[in-house]
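Comment on this:
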Amino acid sequence: DWRLFFVLIVPLMICLWIQYVYRIASKLVQMRYALSLGPIMSHITDAITGARVIHAFNSSTNFINRYFLLSAALNQSSTLILGLRRWTSLHAELIGAILIFVVTYG
């Protein structure tokens, strides 16, 4: 029946639109991850190359605190990326289930 087809196409189109929106958001979150990865790598490199100077001036607690701040920002970005990937995966599974339902009962 053609009415069943339209009833199932509307949720499918909504799911595709939502997936498109979250794909854009995922690109922005990946850019945030890349931006937060640079400072922590630079900080680690500076700490390794300047270890003697850091210990000479008793600045190890400052470097440790800065490392914790940078790693917290990196962990937030990583968690957002994992959540968005799972959300996109869930929508892809939903679209597949709807398509299988339409082909089977349509």
